[in-house]
Amino acid sequence: MIAYRFTQNYDDASDIRQEVFVRAWKNISHLKDESKAGSWIISITYNYCKNFYRNKKDFTPLSENYSGETKEIRGNESSMVADALALLPANQRMAIILLEYENKSYKEIAESLNTNISSVKSLIFRARGNLRNSLDKTKIHKHPEV
Amino acid sequence: MKHLSRADISSYIDGEGKLLYIKQHIQTCERCSALYKEMCEIKETIKSNDLSSDVTCPELNLSSFTHIKNEENRISKTVFAFSLFVFFLFSILLGTSNGKSISNIFNRKKVLSRNEFAEMQTFNEARNVQQYFLGD
Asked: Chain B contact for A4, CB < 8 A?
Protein backbone atom coordinates (compact mmCIF):
# COMPACT_ATOMS: atom_id res chain seq x y z
CA MET A 1 0.00 0.00 0.00
CA ILE A 2 2.89 2.35 0.80
CA ALA A 3 4.39 1.60 -2.62
CA TYR A 4 1.08 2.46 -4.28
CA ARG A 5 0.77 5.68 -2.31
CA PHE A 6 4.32 6.56 -3.27
CA THR A 7 4.09 5.73 -6.98
CA GLN A 8 0.36 6.20 -7.64
CA ASN A 9 0.75 3.49 -10.25
CA TYR A 10 -0.70 0.05 -9.59
CA ASP A 11 1.68 -1.85 -11.91
CA ASP A 12 4.77 -0.16 -10.52
CA ALA A 13 3.54 -0.72 -6.97
CA SER A 14 3.04 -4.44 -7.73
CA ASP A 15 6.58 -4.69 -9.11
CA ILE A 16 7.96 -2.91 -6.06
CA ARG A 17 5.98 -5.10 -3.66
CA GLN A 18 7.28 -8.24 -5.36
CA GLU A 19 10.88 -7.05 -5.18
CA VAL A 20 10.52 -5.90 -1.57
CA PHE A 21 9.22 -9.34 -0.64
CA VAL A 22 12.20 -11.04 -2.31
CA ARG A 23 14.69 -8.68 -0.64
CA ALA A 24 13.05 -9.14 2.75
CA TRP A 25 13.13 -12.92 2.29
CA LYS A 26 16.82 -12.88 1.42
CA ASN A 27 17.80 -10.55 4.26
CA ILE A 28 15.50 -11.73 7.04
CA SER A 29 18.55 -13.04 8.92
CA HIS A 30 19.76 -9.42 9.27
CA LEU A 31 16.64 -8.53 11.24
CA LYS A 32 17.71 -8.76 14.89
CA ASP A 33 14.66 -7.24 16.61
CA GLU A 34 11.33 -8.55 15.36
CA SER A 35 9.45 -5.63 16.94
CA LYS A 36 11.15 -3.38 14.37
CA ALA A 37 10.09 -5.56 11.46
CA GLY A 38 7.52 -3.03 10.25
CA SER A 39 10.07 -0.21 10.05
CA TRP A 40 12.51 -2.59 8.43
CA ILE A 41 10.07 -3.49 5.65
CA ILE A 42 9.18 0.18 5.10
CA SER A 43 12.88 1.00 4.93
CA ILE A 44 13.37 -1.62 2.19
CA THR A 45 10.30 -0.30 0.37
CA TYR A 46 11.52 3.30 0.54
CA ASN A 47 15.01 2.46 -0.72
CA TYR A 48 13.60 0.38 -3.52
CA CYS A 49 11.07 3.06 -4.51
CA LYS A 50 13.89 5.60 -4.82
CA ASN A 51 16.04 3.28 -6.92
CA PHE A 52 13.09 2.09 -8.97
CA TYR A 53 12.54 5.51 -10.51
CA ARG A 54 16.23 6.27 -10.72
CA ASN A 55 16.74 3.15 -12.82
CA LYS A 56 13.56 3.44 -14.82
CA LYS A 57 14.51 5.25 -18.01
CA ASP A 58 11.00 5.89 -19.26
CA PHE A 59 9.97 7.51 -15.99
CA THR A 60 7.21 10.07 -16.30
CA PRO A 61 6.34 12.36 -13.43
CA LEU A 62 3.51 11.13 -11.27
CA SER A 63 1.04 13.79 -12.31
CA GLU A 64 1.40 12.74 -15.96
CA ASN A 65 0.54 9.15 -15.14
CA TYR A 66 -3.10 9.85 -14.46
CA SER A 67 -5.63 9.20 -17.12
CA GLY A 68 -8.66 11.45 -17.32
CA GLU A 69 -10.80 8.60 -16.07
CA THR A 70 -8.68 8.10 -12.96
CA LYS A 71 -8.92 11.79 -12.19
CA GLU A 72 -12.68 11.64 -12.57
CA ILE A 73 -12.95 8.66 -10.21
CA ARG A 74 -10.70 10.26 -7.63
CA GLY A 75 -12.34 13.61 -7.73
CA ASN A 76 -10.73 16.92 -8.39
CA GLU A 77 -9.45 17.60 -4.90
CA SER A 78 -7.83 14.19 -4.45
CA SER A 79 -6.11 14.52 -7.80
CA MET A 80 -4.76 17.91 -6.84
CA VAL A 81 -3.44 16.57 -3.54
CA ALA A 82 -1.87 13.66 -5.44
CA ASP A 83 -0.30 16.12 -7.89
CA ALA A 84 1.04 18.21 -5.02
CA LEU A 85 2.48 15.11 -3.34
CA ALA A 86 4.05 14.03 -6.62
CA LEU A 87 6.05 17.23 -6.75
CA LEU A 88 7.68 16.56 -3.38
CA PRO A 89 11.17 15.04 -3.16
CA ALA A 90 11.15 11.31 -2.36
CA ASN A 91 12.11 11.65 1.31
CA GLN A 92 9.50 14.35 2.02
CA ARG A 93 6.82 12.39 0.15
CA MET A 94 7.55 9.21 2.07
CA ALA A 95 7.60 11.07 5.40
CA ILE A 96 4.17 12.61 4.70
CA ILE A 97 2.71 9.28 3.51
CA LEU A 98 3.92 7.51 6.64
CA LEU A 99 2.68 10.28 8.92
CA GLU A 100 -0.72 11.04 7.42
CA TYR A 101 -1.85 7.76 5.89
CA GLU A 102 0.05 5.12 7.87
CA ASN A 103 -0.27 7.00 11.21
CA LYS A 104 3.39 6.48 12.13
CA SER A 105 5.11 8.50 14.84
CA TYR A 106 8.19 10.64 14.18
CA LYS A 107 10.32 7.94 15.82
CA GLU A 108 8.96 5.22 13.55
CA ILE A 109 9.40 7.42 10.49
CA ALA A 110 13.00 8.11 11.55
CA GLU A 111 13.67 4.36 11.82
CA SER A 112 12.10 3.70 8.43
CA LEU A 113 14.02 6.47 6.65
CA ASN A 114 17.27 5.69 8.50
CA THR A 115 17.52 9.17 9.95
CA ASN A 116 16.91 10.95 13.27
CA ILE A 117 13.81 12.57 14.74
CA SER A 118 14.93 16.16 14.19
CA SER A 119 15.49 15.41 10.49
CA VAL A 120 12.00 13.95 10.28
CA LYS A 121 10.61 17.06 11.97
CA SER A 122 12.36 19.17 9.37
CA LEU A 123 11.23 16.92 6.48
CA ILE A 124 7.57 17.10 7.56
CA PHE A 125 7.70 20.85 8.04
CA ARG A 126 9.31 21.42 4.62
CA ALA A 127 6.91 18.99 2.97
CA ARG A 128 3.94 20.89 4.42
CA GLY A 129 5.40 24.15 3.19
CA ASN A 130 5.82 22.74 -0.32
CA LEU A 131 2.33 21.24 -0.26
CA ARG A 132 0.86 24.54 0.83
CA ASN A 133 2.56 26.30 -2.10
CA SER A 134 1.35 23.68 -4.57
CA LEU A 135 -2.20 23.68 -3.23
CA ASP A 136 -2.29 27.48 -3.16
CA LYS A 137 -1.64 27.48 -6.89
CA THR A 138 -4.55 25.11 -7.44
CA LYS A 139 -6.71 27.05 -4.93
CA ILE A 140 -7.76 24.05 -2.86
CA HIS A 141 -6.32 25.28 0.32
CA LYS A 142 -7.16 28.81 1.38
CA HIS A 143 -5.06 29.73 4.34
CA PRO A 144 -6.01 32.77 6.41
CA GLU A 145 -4.09 36.00 6.10
CA VAL A 146 -1.27 36.22 8.61
CA MET B 1 7.53 38.06 22.52
CA LYS B 2 9.44 35.41 20.63
CA HIS B 3 7.28 33.61 18.09
CA LEU B 4 7.26 29.88 17.49
CA SER B 5 8.95 28.48 14.43
CA ARG B 6 6.88 26.81 11.71
CA ALA B 7 8.76 23.57 12.41
CA ASP B 8 7.66 23.65 16.07
CA ILE B 9 4.03 24.27 15.13
CA SER B 10 4.21 21.53 12.52
CA SER B 11 5.47 19.00 15.06
CA TYR B 12 2.91 20.22 17.62
CA ILE B 13 -0.05 19.38 15.38
CA ASP B 14 1.39 15.85 15.05
CA GLY B 15 1.54 15.55 18.86
CA GLU B 16 5.33 15.79 19.02
CA GLY B 17 7.66 18.31 20.67
CA LYS B 18 7.17 20.62 23.66
CA LEU B 19 3.41 20.30 23.74
CA LEU B 20 2.52 22.30 26.85
CA TYR B 21 4.75 25.26 26.03
CA ILE B 22 3.49 25.48 22.43
CA LYS B 23 -0.13 25.10 23.48
CA GLN B 24 0.17 27.97 25.96
CA HIS B 25 1.94 30.14 23.41
CA ILE B 26 -0.66 29.54 20.69
CA GLN B 27 -3.43 30.57 23.08
CA THR B 28 -1.80 33.92 23.68
CA CYS B 29 -0.10 34.75 20.37
CA GLU B 30 -2.32 35.76 17.46
CA ARG B 31 0.34 35.30 14.78
CA CYS B 32 1.32 31.79 15.90
CA SER B 33 -2.35 30.87 16.33
CA ALA B 34 -3.00 31.83 12.69
CA LEU B 35 -0.02 29.74 11.56
CA TYR B 36 -1.31 26.85 13.61
CA LYS B 37 -4.74 27.03 11.96
CA GLU B 38 -3.16 27.22 8.53
CA MET B 39 -1.07 24.10 9.15
CA CYS B 40 -4.05 22.26 10.59
CA GLU B 41 -5.93 22.98 7.36
CA ILE B 42 -3.09 21.60 5.25
CA LYS B 43 -2.94 18.48 7.41
CA GLU B 44 -6.70 18.00 7.14
CA THR B 45 -6.66 18.51 3.35
CA ILE B 46 -3.97 15.85 2.90
CA LYS B 47 -5.48 13.40 5.35
CA SER B 48 -9.00 13.65 3.93
CA ASN B 49 -7.79 12.90 0.40
CA ASP B 50 -6.42 9.40 0.85
CA LEU B 51 -4.71 8.42 -2.37
CA SER B 52 -5.38 4.73 -2.01
CA SER B 53 -9.08 4.72 -1.13
CA ASP B 54 -9.89 3.09 -4.50
CA VAL B 55 -7.25 0.35 -4.18
CA THR B 56 -7.10 -2.76 -2.05
CA CYS B 57 -3.82 -4.53 -1.46
CA PRO B 58 -2.95 -7.59 0.64
CA GLU B 59 -0.65 -6.67 3.49
CA LEU B 60 2.51 -8.66 4.15
CA ASN B 61 2.02 -11.02 7.11
CA LEU B 62 5.46 -10.70 8.67
CA SER B 63 4.97 -13.11 11.58
CA SER B 64 4.26 -16.05 9.26
CA PHE B 65 7.07 -14.81 7.06
CA THR B 66 9.65 -15.00 9.88
CA HIS B 67 8.18 -18.33 11.05
CA ILE B 68 8.69 -19.88 7.59
CA LYS B 69 12.21 -18.47 7.40
CA ASN B 70 13.14 -19.84 10.84
CA GLU B 71 11.73 -23.23 9.90
CA GLU B 72 13.73 -23.17 6.69
CA ASN B 73 16.93 -22.29 8.61
CA ARG B 74 16.30 -25.13 11.07
CA ILE B 75 15.81 -27.64 8.23
CA SER B 76 18.95 -26.49 6.41
CA LYS B 77 21.01 -26.82 9.63
CA THR B 78 19.68 -30.33 10.20
CA VAL B 79 20.45 -31.33 6.61
CA PHE B 80 23.97 -29.91 6.95
CA ALA B 81 24.63 -31.80 10.20
CA PHE B 82 23.28 -35.02 8.72
CA SER B 83 25.37 -34.71 5.54
CA LEU B 84 28.47 -34.03 7.67
CA PHE B 85 27.75 -37.18 9.67
CA VAL B 86 27.25 -39.25 6.49
CA PHE B 87 30.49 -37.89 5.03
CA PHE B 88 32.44 -38.80 8.16
CA LEU B 89 30.91 -42.28 8.26
CA PHE B 90 31.59 -42.83 4.58
CA SER B 91 35.25 -41.77 4.86
CA ILE B 92 35.78 -44.29 7.69
CA LEU B 93 34.15 -47.06 5.67
CA LEU B 94 36.22 -46.19 2.59
CA GLY B 95 39.46 -46.36 4.62
CA THR B 96 38.54 -49.82 5.96
CA SER B 97 37.63 -51.22 2.55
CA ASN B 98 41.09 -50.30 1.15
CA GLY B 99 42.67 -52.80 3.57
CA LYS B 100 43.73 -50.10 5.99
CA SER B 101 41.62 -50.66 9.01
CA ILE B 102 41.74 -48.12 11.77
CA SER B 103 43.81 -50.45 13.98
CA ASN B 104 46.39 -50.76 11.14
CA ILE B 105 46.72 -47.02 10.89
CA PHE B 106 47.46 -46.77 14.61
CA ASN B 107 49.84 -49.76 14.59
CA ARG B 108 51.80 -48.46 11.61
CA LYS B 109 54.79 -47.46 13.73
CA LYS B 110 54.97 -50.91 15.30
CA VAL B 111 54.92 -52.69 11.87
CA LEU B 112 57.63 -50.44 10.52
CA SER B 113 59.93 -51.09 13.47
CA ARG B 114 59.55 -54.84 12.90
CA ASN B 115 60.63 -54.38 9.29
CA GLU B 116 63.63 -52.42 10.38
CA PHE B 117 64.56 -55.16 12.81
CA ALA B 118 64.41 -57.76 10.01
CA GLU B 119 66.62 -55.60 7.80
CA MET B 120 69.17 -55.27 10.58
CA GLN B 121 69.22 -59.04 11.08
CA THR B 122 69.93 -59.60 7.35
CA PHE B 123 72.70 -56.99 7.52
CA ASN B 124 74.39 -58.74 10.49
CA GLU B 125 74.25 -62.10 8.74
CA ALA B 126 75.85 -60.61 5.61
CA ARG B 127 78.62 -59.07 7.72
CA ASN B 128 79.33 -62.42 9.36
CA VAL B 129 79.65 -64.14 5.94
CA GLN B 130 82.00 -61.37 4.76
CA GLN B 131 84.15 -61.80 7.87
CA TYR B 132 84.34 -65.56 7.32
CA PHE B 133 85.58 -65.28 3.71
CA LEU B 134 87.89 -62.29 4.11
CA GLY B 135 89.25 -63.48 7.40
CA ASP B 136 88.74 -60.17 9.25
From this structure: yes
